[in-house]
Amino acid sequence: MSPTKKKSTTAQATPAAQAGTAFDPFPTLSDAELTDLVHQPRRIVETERPPPPRIIGREEMLRLVPLSFPKLIDEMVARRFPRARKISPQKIGWLEEEYMAWRANLPLQTYKGDKKLDDET
Hints:
The protein is α+β, with helices and mostly antiparallel strands. The protein has helices at residues 15-22, 31-38, 58-64, 69-77, 96-104; strands spanning 55-57, 85-88, 91-95. It has a domain at 55-104. Helices cover 34% and strands 10% of the residues.
């Protein structure tokens, strides 16, 4: 039997191991660095979100608009009123923004004795 040679166990870091420690995503931190991280004030990263668009249901729309439901459908078909959105198979609703825009664009009622807009210029 021949004596076996033992390999030397001197710890030398290979170039790959040295590069790995340089780019370690989870480096070991000292106690002072850890306490600094723990005691930092939290920062709000996300900005405040706008509220989701509000949907007006059929019953509420019939209270807002002085029309019957069949007349409301006629106005939607004639494109004089915003179209309803299908929420579920049996439920419809209107976007509040579209209703408010429709309401803001309604023509003004004219009365006897009103000046015409062309005469005011």
